[in-house]
Amino acid sequence: MSHQHDAPLGRHLLDRRGFLSHMATGVGGIALSSILAEKGLLAAEPKAGPLAPKPPHFAPKARRVIHIYCTGAVSHLDTWDYKPELIKRHGQPMPGAEKLLTFQGENGELAKSPWEFRPRGETGKYVSDLLPHLAERVDDMAFVHSLTSKTNTHGPGEMFMSTGFTLEGFPSIGAWASYALGTEDQDLPAYVAIPDPRGDPQQGPANWTNGFLPAVYQGTAFNAERPIRHLARPGSISAEDDRAARDLIRVLNDEHLERNPGDEELSARIAAYELAARMQLSAPEVGDLSRESPATRALYGLDDPNPILAGFGRNCLLARRLVERGVRFVTLFNGAFAMGEGALNWDGHRRIKSDYDRHGPILDKPAAALLRDLKDRGLLDDTLVVWSTEFGRMPTFQKGTEGRDHNPKGFTAWLAGAGVKKGYSHGATDPFGYEAVEDVTDVHDFHATILHLMGLDHERLTYYNNGAQRRLTDVHGHVIREILA
Q1: What are the Cα distances from residue 312, in Å, to 2, 124, 174, 414?
Q2: Could you give the CA distance from residue 345 to residue 333 in angstroms, rounded to a whole number?
Q3: Do residues 66 and 386 make contact, with C-beta atoms less than 8 angstroms apart?
Q4: How far apart are CA 360 and CA 346, in angstroms?
Q5: How many other C-beta atoms are found inside a 10 Å radius of the C-beta of residue 438?
Q6: DSSP for residue 140
Q7: pTM across the whole model
Q8: pLDDT tens, residue by residue, 246-287
Q9: Alpha-carbon distance 40 to 374, whole Å?
């Protein structure tokens, strides 16, 4: 036998260590396959895990939810809440609130919106020119104009809207939904959080946390620009060896769980690893937007010259692709945290006109496309789309500025799709939009309504933690039945 000593080691020849390693892998794979075959587990399906579909409390209207969350506190007075009296009294002091102090200090005079409001759709709902594409969809929306929050600070406000509590550490609404209902597609996460192309919201992963629920119910964060990481099988491991190893691990894990039935952390890890293995095939497919038609790409603005608008459009399209494959809950973030008010989100303290002229189009066309696309495909019949922000804005400009300060006393959200009235408005703020005065609601009511539409009683959906039966709505909340179809 001729030895090619000048060839690089491992290129033509194996040294003893390499030979034994390859031989062990092959023999191990054969032995493992034999053992698993004898136990009848080689091709066995995984046992029903914590994300298996579960029955709701009652027949649901919505099988899935997309929550569009605009960070930075969108001004209701410049978008959805038309106030003729504010226009009439522009430049005057707000009656009974002279020298009013809010989050950043003293306020100036009443300030009408820089954008015109016009009647839209068959219902004639007045909506600002800031959002012309979404304005075309008002006949599908149920507005809640009387929301209130517990806080006027962004971080706690995000937490309140995401989890029902102003402090971190509590489960997000998407985690509660996946805990209660599981998911219809075992090859994708039950709950997906899609950060804005500009970055994460202020509280980051705390917005999609599982809190004290088992870790398997935490949201999986990825967007159209940043796919799920670490899914690919290493090239040095064959598909057969990878599958055999997973089968063996599953056998060992199942045996361990039988001996330790209360080990939720292990159960969550097993479910996460098994899901990651299945997502090696499913996640790249769901994120492949090239499969969409040119008309769909144009609808969402995927080729828009504004790269942020195009990026948010890709995220909206990704959200549709996720829910049509059975993902239970998707939170779609618009805006990101950054130093500098209004730079990357809706926090319009200083120059609301120039800030919102930048942010409005990024939200408007893609979000309206999502609503239209869902409706055209028949998905809006059993998909609930929710739009919200953490609180509203003042009807005055801050003293010395052309922007509005934080206002938790009254703001707007809307729902569209499964189970809600079309072209309906509920509640109202006062004539200046400062404070909710009619059918006042809070975030707990909002959450209770979303759960109700998913077939869940917010008072029955509980989890025992730290000596108490915890729930998303704490000890509060009533379903806003007036908006239900």
Answers
A1: 62, 28, 20, 20
A2: 10
A3: yes
A4: 9
A5: 12
A6: G
A7: 0.84
A8: 677 667 767 776 777 766 666 666 666 566 556 555 566 788
A9: 43
